[in-house]
Every structure is written in C-alpha cells, then in structure tokens.
From TrEMBL:
Residues 320-338 have a biased composition (Polar residues). Keywords: Cell cycle, Cell membrane, Developmental protein, Golgi apparatus, Hydrolase, Lipid metabolism, Lipoprotein, Magnesium, Membrane, Metal-binding, Palmitate, Phosphoprotein, Sphingolipid metabolism, Transmembrane, Transmembrane helix. Pathway: Sphingolipid metabolism; Lipid metabolism; sphingolipid metabolism. Residues 199-284, 302-338 are annotated as: Disordered. Residues 387-662 form the Endonuclease/exonuclease/phosphatase domain. SUPFAM superfamilies: DNase I-like. Belongs to the neutral sphingomyelinase family. It comes from Scophthalmus maximus. InterPro entries: Endo/exonu/phosph_ase_sf, Endo/exonuclease/phosphatase, Sph/SMPD2-like, Sphingomyelinase/PLipase_C. The keyword Lyase does not apply. The lineage of its organism: Eukaryota, Metazoa, Chordata, Craniata, Vertebrata. The chain crosses the membrane at residues 55-88. GO terms for molecular function: metal ion binding; sphingomyelin phosphodiesterase activity. One of its GO terms (biological process) is sphingomyelin metabolic process. This is Sphingomyelin phosphodiesterase 3.
Length: 700
C-alpha cells in the first residue's frame, strides 16, 4: 500500500514532463483564451448591453486577433512538446498524494496539522464523522464559460478559502435546561449572529488565535436589541451609553472599574458558578428559580464553543510537481462571501473570554439572543436537515468534482492544505492508457481531502465514456483512512469513494454500466487493502464506515432516469434524501443551479442563496428541474409557468453502507445539509452529512 507522492518514479521523467509541458503550454493557453473571448457570460453580456463602447468590448476586439496570431506562432513548439509529453503519460502515476509535515510540537502531540485529528484510542461509545461533496466546475476558462462561469483560477482560490473558513469556524452547541426540551442542538453562526461583530469570509477568527487568513476586521457594529431595556432607555447595566463605554476600561458590563469583588461577571471563584451568585437583573433570593428572560443568568442556556487548533506555521512536504503556491493571507479584493457570511467572535473587543478548552467563560456585554434555528426535523425523521450558508464546522472529509484545470489544482490545493493535512489531487490519466480507449485531454477532475491519515488509494477509469465526456478521464477514486485504534490495538478504518459519472442526458445505460463498475471496483479495493503484507501477521481492521460521495449526473425524480433510480447501488448503500425509486423526501433539494441566474443579486452571496432555497418560489426560479415534455431541456429555467415535480434535480449524492461493519456497530445520520457557501463560484449546491458510528459499548 504505497501512496504516490510524485507523478513519476524518476527525476528524469519528471524533468522531461516539465520540459514538454513548457513547450505545449503557450499554445494551450492561447487557444483557451481565444475560445474564451468568443463565449461571454451573462454578466459580461449585461455589461456590454449597458455600455456597448465599454473597455471590455474593446479588449475583446483587440485581443482575439492577437491571440490567433500568437497561437499560430506557437504551434510548431507545441507539436514538438506533444511528441515528448504524450508517451510519458503512460507511466504517469494516477494521482498525487500530498500531506503536511507536522512541526516538532505537533509531532510530540501526535497531530498532523491545522485541521489534523490525532489518531488516538477509539472511544467505546464511538465517534461521529462529517463528510461533504461539491462540484466546483473548475474547467479550463473556455469550457467553464459554457456553464456561465469565468475566471477559473480566481474561483479556485476562493473556493478553497470559503471551504476552509466554513470548516474551521468554531462549532457552537446550545445546551437548553428546560422541562420541555432536554435535547442538545448544534447551531450555526447564522442563527447566533446577534450580538457578535461580523467580518468578511476572508478574514480571521479571534486575535487570540494564530491567524490563517490575515488580520481580523476591527469594524464594529452598534449595539442593538438590548434584552434589558427598551429602545432609548438609560442606565442599562448591560448596555451602557457610548460615553460610559469610553470612560470605562473595565470589561464588566455590571459595574465600573472592577471595584466589586462580588461581581458575578468578574468573579473567578466558586461564586461564578451559575446558580450560586446574585443575578444582577433578578436580584437576591431567586437564584434557585432560573428565569428564561434573564440574559446574564446562564443556567437556563449554556453555550460552548469548540474550534480547531490555532494555525501553526507549517510547510507542505515537497511532493513532485506540487508547488506550495499562494500561502499568503486572504485576498480581500477577490470575490468573497457577503459581509455577513461568517460571524466571528472577538474576545478582546466584546468581552468574551476564551478558556483553554475553547468554551465561553463569561457572557459578552452584548448578549446573545436565542433565534429560531434553521435546522428542521420532518415528520418521523431521525436526523436534522437544513439549508446552511456554511460548510459544517469540523469537517473531516471533502470530495470535489470537476477540478479539471491544472492551474486551478495548484491554487486550490494549498488553500485546502491549511485545514486538511492529507489531499489526493491531480487524479486520472492523460493521453492513452489502459482501458481509456480515447485520448484524454482532461483528467478525472476528482479531489479528496481528509483530516485523517490516508492509508491506501486507488483510481479506476470508466472505459465507456461517450461524446465530449470521453475526452475526460472520468472514473472513481477509492481511499482507506485511519480513524482510530481499538483497545486491542486494531486499526479502525473507513472507506471513501469519490466519483463523477457520465453527464450526457439520455445515456442511462452508460451510467448504469459505470455504477456496476463502481460497486465491483469498490469491493475489490476493500478486499485488497485489507490483506496484510506478505509474511506479516496483523490484527484485522475494524471498519467504521463506507461512504460514496460524488456527482452521479442523474436525479431521483426525472422520468428519464428511471433506470439509474432502480440500480442495485441503492440496495447496498443508503441515500438519506431518498424515500424510494422516483421519490425523494419532502425536504430534499435539487443541487443543480440554473446557470442563467448565477449573477443575479438574489443569489450572489451564501446568505441570499440560502434564503432563496428556503422559499418554494425561489427554488422554482433558480434550480434546474427535471425536463418537461412541453419544455426543451436546453432552454432556460427562468420565467416558466409549467408545473414542476419535486424540489429540483438532485444529482450530487452522499451514500453510506452499514454492510461489513463489526457486530453491534451501527451507523446513524446526525444531520444532513445543503450548503450555499460557494454561491457565485459554481453551478451546484454542495451537500454535507454528519455520520455517527456507535459501537454498542458503554463508556467505562
């Protein structure tokens, strides 16, 4: 089980590859730019219609002939480079494995990096893991424009920033002490934004931690929604006047200058324990009876915040053609999520003290008000589901599709490595190789990132691609990850599959053949990776999960996709969004966005797209639905009046299997999310799932 950390087995081959590509690249880039200048996005068309003599139009008229002239000049060099490059692809490795080299302090603690998870002893009660899948449409510039997207390299960098910002944000849990509700709910920052200052999605967590995205925003918002007094009231102990704030250097919202030793906000002794001090709002004698209206009496609602470890200064291991690239902080000039896309906490300014275990040590002077969460549970559903503006906090595994462009890979990978220590990228074949009968101009577009060590990986190419899909080496990436060690020193492992199926509509038989291959290859990979090395006696691995992530290019509601809907894949793996063939659960959403509306203001930010997806009319306007007999499949979805079935085409899947687990081990979905954080960067919604693995044992 050797992971390929370089694209070639020898330095000589690597040098020849670099030399040949340097001859081919000018021609490739000029051709890409020439074609891109002929295909305009809807945003560019809008700008040109508003100003026909705009600078953009002038640039196109001048650059197109120039690109053509330079392209013809570069052709002889490209031909020479191609003659060297094409044969090299037969010996090129099918993927590139890169990882973060831990520093000395992390090595002592057994940690792998910023987002790395220490591989410790497997807890008897089990563990939960979070998975996410996203089609990011990082095609070469000219091809991306056919999906109404442009500026692929900038989008690649921004995709990485948003994913790591969403995954590395603190996770807030609200513990509610109530006679009618004893459950524990996890709330996203979007439902707890009141009372917190906001920063850009490119900006960073509290100054109390090491930054990974640049300096924090110091702009503050005015105090609003004071729970103590009505608007305009004076002498509020929590909401002091502006002048009082300027004259008071104390962080205490109750008394000035920290003079009172009995202040429940300043006290560090046993008196600060909820229920054992005098509530400054309720007065004496009522501590035993907690009031839900008291913003400072935290016995009714306790909030804990957990966040990943601070960002250390780590460098990426030297791995073949993997360039560190773009390790600088966030670029605030690039496309960002909206100003409200990531609410942060700032301990110094707001008075929130963070303890060593990242929990809220005392209430900020701007109290957090409880708002209705966006998480819902439909009917007899056993797990929460929601539409989230952020990727889940503490994301463990990420599967990406359509990372076809090599330049985008080199920009996206360093961004992901600042949260995920282990990444499989540049997956697939070029040229002619094995079962791939046609010449492959693009690789598979698959990428897999993990916070847990990857033990083994394999890529397989689908041999039956047709039409334009045959030009890409679409296939399946299988990985085995190490998630823990049992008391008996047995490894606890998980299996991940990332795939992207044939896309052309009407080719149901092709996709079914690919699903057959997917199941067969997966079984072969699990069997081969579980075999011990020759001559060694090791304990059998304990399997915690087996998950398939990816874009399957068919939905569960279209009449044209009936063949795929009834495939045996869905008897071996469970789909959390599916009721049966041809019927999704009522809360399930389509994941394919209408490309014509990507630049509308209504869906330009994660929050605005989230609000649109929560509205039925918004979904009908901006999601692609199964084609109707009275509607041409290629026509725009906007402005139609025909009846629509379901909530859009859900072609991005997250499937899990409980077959092959240990006896008494069980898998349960904790939550499922449709994620809008990549609004404006791709024509797909992302999906995320948190899976709990229970062992049936009791905690000692």
């Amino acid at each position: 089980m050797v992971l390929h950390t370089t694209p070639y087995s020898s330095a000589c081959l690597h040098f020849l590859d670099g030399l040949s590509w340097s001859l081919v690249f000018p021609c490739y880039w000029l051709l890409d730019r020439l074609l891109a200048s002929c295909v305009a996005t809807s945003l560019e068309k809008r700008q040109r219609s508003q100003d026909p003599c705009s600078f953009l139009t002038l640039c196109v008229l001048i650059s197109a002939p120039l690109y053509l002239l330079l392209l013809l000049t570069s052709l002889p060099f490209a031909l020479l480079g191609f003659i060297i490059w094409a044969p090299l692809q037969t010996v090129r490795q099918p993927y590139l494995y890169t990882y973060l080299r831990p520093d000395k302090h992390q090595a002592e603690q057994g940690q792998a990096g910023l987002g790395g998870v220490g591989i410790g002893e497997w807890r008897p009660q089990g563990r939960s893991f979070c998975f996410s899948s996203a089609n990011v449409c990082l095609l070469p510039e000219s091809l991306a424009r056919f999906n109404n997207l442009s500026d692929t390299h900038r989008r690649a960098r921004e995709v990485g920033k948003r994913i790591r910002n969403g995954a590395s944000r603190p996770q807030i849990k609200i513990y509610i002490d109530s006679p009618t509700n004893t459950s524990i709910s996890a709330a996203s920052f979007s439902s707890l934004a009141t009372g917190f200052r906001h920063t850009s999605s490119l900006e960073q967590r509290s100054d109390q931690t090491h930054t990974i995205n640049g300096p924090a925003d110091t702009e503050t918002e005015p105090f609003t929604e004071c729970p103590i007094h009505p608007s305009g009231a004076a002498d509020c102990p929590v909401h002091p006047a502006a002048g009082d704030q300027a004259n008071n250097n104390s962080e205490c919202p109750i008394h000035p200058s920290g003079e009172s030793p009995d202040c429940p906000m300043h006290s560090t002794g046993p008196q600060s324990v909820p229920g054992h001090h005098d509530c400054p709002i309720h007065g004496e004698g009522i501590q035993a009876k907690f009031s839900t209206d008291c913003p400072l009496h935290t016995s009714g609602v306790q909030i804990s915040i957990s966040a990943p470890e601070p960002d250390p200064q780590v460098e990426e291991a030297e791995t073949g053609n993997h360039q560190p690239g773009d390790q600088a902080g966030g670029d605030t000039s690039s496309m960002t999520a909206s100003r409200e896309s990531l609410a942060r906490y700032h301990g110094v300014d707001s008075g929130v003290g963070m303890t060593s275990n990242n929990t809220l040590s005392h209430v900020p002077r701007t109290s957090v008000l409880k708002r209705p969460g966006r998480k819902r549970r439909h009917g007899d559903e056993t797990f929460d589901h929601d539409i989230s503006a952020f990727f889940p906090a503490n994301l463990d595994f990420l599967a990406l599709q359509e990372v076809f462009d090599h330049g985008s890979t080199t920009r996206l990978r360093p961004q992901l490595h600042r949260y995920f220590p282990y990444v499989l990228s540049d997956v697939g074949r070029y040229g002619w190789k094995d079962c791939c009968s046609r010449f492959k101009f693009l690789n598979s577009g698959l990428m897999l990132a993990s916070r847990y060590p990857i033990l083994d990986a394999r890529y397989e190419c689908y041999p039956n691609g047709r039409g334009e899909d045959a030009l890409a080496a679409k296939g399946a990436l299988f990985a085995k990850v190490h998630v823990g060690t049992s008391h008996q020193e047995q490894r606890v492992v998980g299996y991940l599959t990332c795939t992207h199926l044939h896309a052309i509509e009407g080719d149901a038989s092709v996709r079914c053949e690919q699903l057959d291959l997917l199941l067969r290859w997966g079984a072969e990979f699990r069997q081969s990776s579980s075999q011990p090395p020759d001559g060694e006696k090791v304990l059998e691995d304990l399997v915690a999960f087996d998950v398939i992530l990816g874009d399957l290019n068919f939905d569960n509601c279209s009449s044209e996709d009936k063949l795929e809907q009834q495939h045996t894949l869905f008897t071996q793996y469970k789909d959390p969004c599916r009721l049966g063939p041809g019927e999704d659960k009522p809360w399930a959403l389509g994941t394919l966005l209408d490309p014509s509306g990507l630049y509308d203001d209504e869906v330009s930010s994660p929050e605005s797209l989230q609000k649109v997806m929560e509205n039925e009319d918004g979904r009908k306007e901006y999601l692609v639905f199964p084609p109707s007999k009275s509607q041409c499949p290629a026509s725009s979805q906007k402005g139609r009046k025909i009846p629509l079935k379901g909530n859009g085409r859900r072609i991005d899947y997250m499937l899990y299997s409980d077959e092959g687990l240990q006896q008494d081990w069980k898998l349960e979905i904790e939550e499922f999310s449709f994620v809008t954080q990549l609004a404006g960067l791709t024509d797909h919604l992302s999906v995320a799932m948190r899976l709990a693995v229970s062992t049936g044992e009791e905690e000692p």
